[in-house]
Design goal:
Blueprint lengths: L1 H9 L1 H4 L8 H4 L2 E5 L15 H10 L4 E3 L5 E3 L2 E7 L4 E6 L13 H12 L3 H9 E6 L4 E6 L6 H5 L12 H4 L16 E3 L9 E6 L23 E5 L4 H9 L5 E2 L7 H5 L4 E4 L6 E7 L9 H6 L6 H9 L6 E2 L18 H4 L4 H10 L6 E7 L3 H16 L3 E7 L1 H7 L13 E7 L27 H11 L4 H18 L2 E7 L3 E4 L2 E2 L12 E2 L1
Parallel strand pairs: 1-10, 1-11, 15-16, 15-17
Antiparallel strand pairs: 2-3, 4-5, 5-7, 6-7, 8-9, 9-10, 11-19, 12-19, 13-17, 13-18, 14-18, 20-21
Length: about 525
Amino acid sequence: MRRRTLLAGAAAAAAAPAMPALAQGSAATTLRYMPQADVTAVDPMSTTSYGVRNHGHMCWDTLYGPDENFVIRPQLAEGHTVSDDGLRWVFTLREGIRFHDNEPIRAKDAIASITRWSGRDTIGQTLRARTEEMRALDDRRFEIRLKQKFGPMLEALGKPSSYPCFVYPERFATVEPTRPFTEVVGSGPYRWVAAERLSGARAVYQRFEGYVPNPRPPSLLGGAKLAHFERVVFNWIPDAGTVAAALQAGEIDMYEQVAPDLRAVLQRHRDIVVQRIDSGGTVAHLRFNQLNPPFDNPAVRRALLHSVNQADFMSSIMGTDRSRWADGIGAFPTSSPLSNDEGIAALMGPRSTDRAKEAIRAAGYNNERVVVLHPTDVVNNNTMTTVLTDLLQRSGLNAESANSDWATVLQRRARQEPIAQGGWSALIVLFGGVDLGNPGVHPLLRANGRQAWFGWPTSERLETLREEWLGAPDLDAQKGIARQIQAALWQDLPYIPLGQYYVDAAWRRDITGQQKGMTLPLNLKRG
């Protein structure tokens, strides 16, 4: 931490030459942005990485989207009607909307995009299972006929994260999600500038002049998305101290997630605003790979409930100020109405690595290697993974960190092979509260085996309760089921929650237009 403070406070001028230089004239029309992670792929369906998700929101649009109050509003859609007792939905697209190749966005494109998304997304899979037919009625209208009612239709089509239902041209939407496309023809406010892409350093976006914004005022992703800048440049800089120095020197305009130990330094700078945009926070999780030993054994997973201390993980990245983090976190974040204390004593009693060792031995652990995926270039993941590997070792496991950059972690976590063939055992997973609010969207609570999120857990109990939640008549009934889900979590343990924390964004004072809810470089302007 002392090293970063020195960099940020005294070495801004020295750090500036390392930054990509922009002429003064172009700086006025270019937003220089430091994202939370590099854009490691251009196909948003290839990963749940937030760096790629945010790239997706630059280039594509969705049929619906949440406003700043997280009320779902029409986006590319003009609206919809519901008939046949909730089994027939007819959607109408807005007039004049176009892809970046200037082709109109048609109903057939929306249908193909929903089909591709629903094969991979958590709640999309549920929609697919309940759908009888989707068909275009004309170029602007399409219908979804259901076999079974699906109440969260708009929340599914408008979800902003992990995975958003972006609308692609039909020829791209028919590509299997397991085969990511590499060309970008978007439907959103910015074009992808492939020629200026520099892997591990830079991603560039150019305003699409043919974009037709939503007619409503800007409000996160449920209103107009205005491209005030001609260009947006994502400058990926792994060292947080260098980022802070560059922001102070005016070499970048906005820093999406401020490293916790640099927050106070930036707050003292008169030309910088430090503010919490995402009040939903971020929840950290220990995710197990349940295809490989030893975590294919639920008793080994449960043994770690004796030694995991959420406060250790949270304080390692956020310090001792409890206004910036919370422990006692179960299946749902504090921002969710489903948050509850069912069985939370499993993580809140006295911690003991000795008891964990005894339980692991009793479970029949045979000293199998435990490989922990460890991204060293993402600040919070790096710190918590160091804490995790040490904890696993002290708990009696033959654990080791597999150090790499973030892009390599994303590639390796998709591998289902055994450890000896390049597989993995565990990793730290970070999801924003927006992705965890209920069992329908929560990616880590899906337990349908190899169709589930990376780690591939199987739990009939969790799947049954999820279906019950989807059919619950009101919030009180949903809350009761959520308590049962949390009880099942401690038993089947597809993951262990490690706490919830809050991160601020920072920007030069002349940048305005930030939308509450998610930190995205949309609707921003200078002055």
